[in-house]
Every structure is written in C-alpha cells, then in structure tokens.
Write a structure and sequence with these properties.
By secondary structure, the protein is of the alpha/beta class. It has helices at 10-22, 34-43, 62-67, 84-88, 102-123; strands at 3-6, 29-31, 49-52, 55-56, 59-60, 73-78, 92-97. It contains 5 helices and 7 strands. The strands form 2 sheets. It has a 5-stranded parallel beta sheet with strand order 2-1-3-6-7, with helices on both faces. Strands 4-5 form a two-stranded antiparallel ribbon.
C-alpha cells in the first residue's frame, strides 16, 4: 500500500508519521503545501491513501482537487471541523480532528484496508 502525508505543520506531520509507523504504515513522502502536493501528484503514480490536512501554508487542500484528478482514498487530519461536509464529498474514509487519537487513526486505517482489499479482490 502506497500512502502519503500532506501536512504543513512539520511537528504534526512527524507525529502522524510515528503513529502510522506504530501500525505498520510507512508513508512514501510528506508534502507541506498545495503547490508541492499538486506537483507530486501530477508527476508520480497515485497513492492508495492520502492523509490530508485541510489548511495548508498556501491555501486549502481542496484546491489540490481543482488541479489534479484524485481517485485515492483520503483520511483527513485537521484541527477544523467546519470542513467535514465538504471533505465527505471527496473520497474520504474518515475525518480525524487534531490532536489525532491513536485508536481513531487505527480504526480509520482498518476501514481503508478492508475497502482496499475488497477493491483488489474485485479487480482480479
């Protein structure tokens, strides 16, 4: 499974990376802005799962979807609850509020893994 983190607050990105490592996930890359994320997503194979903050240093992460067609599953990781409805209109698995609870993160990842396994089984 290929996962990436898009988070502008480097301490939050490192904490999420550690939490994911504890459950056996090693994100391929950590990106920190809308611009950097768009460039990466346009020039690399699509990840299976994106951990996505909403308010980034150069805009809202929803701007990424205006520039790149993304079919990846998304787990939003944000301090803002007012974007939940907009987030669930995308390929959202979950919407986790910071500080992220380890059990909630694990449950969200497990939901993704079940859906990912079903999708793989159906494609063979």
């Amino acid at each position: 499974m290929k996962a990436i983190i898009i988070e502008d607050e480097k301490p939050s990105a490192r904490r999420l990376n550690r939490m994911l490592a504890d459950i056996g996930i090693t994100p391929e890359v950590m990106l920190h802005s809308v611009h950097e994320s768009v460039e990466y997503l346009l020039n690399n194979p699509a990840p299976d799962l994106i951990f996505l903050d909403i308010q980034l240093s150069d805009g809202l992460s929803f701007e990424i979807f205006d520039q790149v067609d993304i079919d990846s599953a998304i787990i939003f990781t944000t301090a803002y609850d007012e974007y939940a409805l907009q987030a669930f209109k995308l390929n959202s698995i979950d919407y986790l509020l910071k500080p992220i609870d380890e059990d909630e993160l694990k449950a969200a990842v497990e939901r993704f893994q079940v859906a990912f396994a079903k999708a793989r089984k159906n494609s063979t």
